[in-house]
User: Fold these one by one.
Assistant:
Number 1:
Amino acid sequence: MSASIDAFIFDLDGTVYLGDAALPGAVEGIAELRHYGKRILFVSNKPLEPREAYARKLTRLGIPTSPDDVITSGFVLGYHLAHTEPQLRLYVVGEENLLNELRGHGLIIVPEYAEQDPMQVIMPDGIDAVVVAFDRTLDYRKLNTAYQALIRGARFFATNPDKTCPMPGGAIPDAGATIAALEHMTGRAVELLAGKPSRLMIEVALQRLDVPPQRALLVGDRLETDIFMGQQAGMFTAVTLTGVSKREDIQKMAAPPDFIIESLDELVYLCR
Ligand SMILES: [Mg+2]
């Protein structure tokens, strides 16, 4: 299979870096793959930062990266809606950077209702779809507006399904927690997820790399998102032990990834 891999898709957190430091072998491994002419794309489920921020961080860590080498769940959602349903008026439970990302794709964002009595049932108008994202500015007003729109038939989209986001010393609530709250309130299920492990994210990734799935390798540290997504798409997969997965978990899997690696500099041996 060696030379048949033309492109590599990398998860970021726990795969390429951890916090603010590149993982051992990442800088050298990615440089070597590029040296052999392999195409590289980085994917993140976090809708908090624009692609430029990831490109700057990777470049600072020694992996020269342009914004076009990165996709986030916010980018994928914006890209998809701009190509399929650009007319939808979106109410976004998300942070300012995500609103800007979606506006950058030419999408229409419904503004917040300025004043809202929490005991009042608001009648949101002009909302065609609710977008739920990782939002550290989440409050009752946003939940109420999203709830009222959803029970009146608005579409139900989300950037990423992660329940929590790992942080130094633990984790904080992520978009999955808000999705679950709204699903519980409305009895509805989210209908479109942009981030891992959705099909949409991998489709956008492969399209940008311009390779068929059987010529691409997905590298990640999470079995249930990264590896599952790559396998569903028919790609080669490699799990790195630098993040959340342990060798014991992998050995228990019915369909294990193609490769288990301890650092990214092992990848070059898989494609020479
Ligand atoms: Mg990860």
Number 2:
Amino acid sequence: MNAYQRAVKDIADRRREDLDEGLSVWRNALANDEGLRAANAFYQAEAVKKAQRLPNELDKARAELQANAARLGLTQQTIEPPVRCKACNDTGYANGKYCKCVVKRVIQSDAENLALPQTDFGPAKKSAPKAISKLYDKAEQYVNEFPQNKKPFFIIIGSAGTGKTILASAIATEMLARGAATVTVSAFEMVKRAKDYHTQFAIDDYRDLFTPMLDCDLLVIDDLGTETVLKNITREYFYTIINERWLHGRNTVITSNLSPNDMLTRYGEAVFSRLCDKNKANLFTVTAPNARI
Ligand SMILES: [Zn+2]
């Protein structure tokens, strides 16, 4: 069972527990309160009459039952608790796909999904090197537009020491606080997850850390270009990630010290065309010590 299947099962189990809990509250109340018991019996008898199209007092019986329930502090919500996720009615699936709540559960159950340290946006902005400080305004706009970003790709290119990783983790921290299911990885870790996925998915208790990178609300890939290039894995899986996120317009932040030309050479035309798609991506270049954005 992978992390997704486990999350769906947990959600279904929790729904069943919620309903059992509500039912047992009702049963206890019936067992302990004579007035409620009488009103319930009256209601059921009248409901049968109504179904048989006989003269009945169902409206009166319903009002009496409601009054007795209210006297005991029982509401519809206690007897039949509302679903916790309206998007999937606690089934774990919405529109034939894993629901957002499943993705969130998978990600939250997994501290390894957050590789970058928590970074508060405000203080980070204040102490940012000059070269990158202007980018914080762009980042703020990016965060505020979420999840309706016209350009979901936010790509920061710059040499070491320009503060791009701190900016990326400030974005991630802010988005996380706004409820976005967030995964941050180093490029090195991304390739490791791809390799594990590629080679280990037949193992029963294998924990799938790859697919959250496709499905999460925000993916941050730090230091693109420093990862190992493995045959049949690095390029292929990186394309899978980028293409999936590009297709669905999912927020993706990448930091890299590769120039666009280097990216083209290293990852090929298909990846390059998505990363540099002017309609979906904002590419920022930071050069230390002089700001050039
Ligand atoms: Zn859901």
